[in-house]
Design goal:
The chain is α/β, with parallel strands linked by helices. It is 45% helix and 11% strand.
Length: 265
Amino acid sequence: MLVQRGTPQSRALYDPWVEDAGARGIRLIGYERPGYGGSTLQPGRAVASAAKDVAAIAQKLGLEQLRIWGVSGGGPHALACAALLPGLVVSAAVLASVAPYPAEGLDYFAGMGESNVLLGRAALQGREACERFVEEDFSALLRATPESITEAFRTLLCPADAAVLTTDFAHFVIRTVREGISERRDGVVDDEIAFVNPWGFELSQIRIPVLLMHGGQDLMVPISHTQWLAGKIPNVEARLLPDDGHVTLHVRRIPEVHAWLLSRT
């Protein structure tokens, strides 16, 4: 089972995810998209580019089938694999994903926290503007400690998410962010530009079972994005969770995701 991590994090996997996977007989795999951590840059990559990378990983590991889940910025990349690798990927779960831009009938930035609105608009202006914003905005995140991380995310956290970031999960977030972007910010810039440009596939191409999950209190990515996606993806199950935010999905819902993925073939 392969994990598409969120923006701007490394390939690292949270210990409770690995423990739950192990208890179910799952081998959990993480990797870094191009430009993150030690991963080679891929200038001009699209969301669809993830499918080629995942296919190469599967071939290297000798895997004939994969289940995949992606959260936040990993969500579009998981959808790319679902659409473009139907012979390899047998089921996919996507948590708190953005929709494509533009998305007809969706007010893309409505209900989104200020920092992510500004980041998305910078990406729409082009690479130079996005790089400037990322260097300035993400510097505070890179300096954050477990005690100050809620301040770094202050415009993006509902109360439920802020509470989660007072637990040990805050240490994990800080570690994976530093691993992902401390040396360079290319990965997050490339992600953000890819999100607001053509993804390189159509959601209607997806034929495998897909689970969508989203918290009703999410300020990082509003729940309206998953509601829009649910209307475009065939064979989809959508779980809209009124008491969850964005970060809470990482700590509350992964066992549920693992169970669902294993139940679909």
